[in-house]
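Reading group handout, session on sequence-to-structure problems. Before we discuss, look at one worked example. The prompt was deliberately terse, the way you'd type it at a terminal:

> structure Translation initiation factor SUI1 family protein

The input record follows.
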Amino acid sequence: MKRASTGGLVYSTETGRMCPVCRQPIAQCACKQAARPAPAGDGVARVSRETKGRGGKSVTLVKGLALDPVALGVLGKQLRTACGSGGTVKDGVIEVQGDHCDRIIDALTKQGHRAKRAGG
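And the output record:
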């Protein structure tokens, strides 16, 4: 069975990136939101430091927040700005470059999240 091509417009100078499925701007895409599962987590942010697989460089991980991907991305941006370093959001986990556990816990509690240190 052959599938229909989902090709077409992928970027518009007027609205930016376009969803190839519903042909709407990414910000207004309804098909991605319907397919997303409910965020997993118990509401307690677990902040830990990890160096595995990173050439000895440490990153601070924030796990367990029950937020949707957009809100998690915004929170990740705020935490990276508060720490003055880079990082990313992958698979529901916020990664901030460097050892910033205490600073991130303070920032999360100021924003009303319950945060605790995990690991050593």
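Points for discussion. First: The chain has two domains: 8-37, 44-117. Second: The chain has a mean pLDDT of 81.
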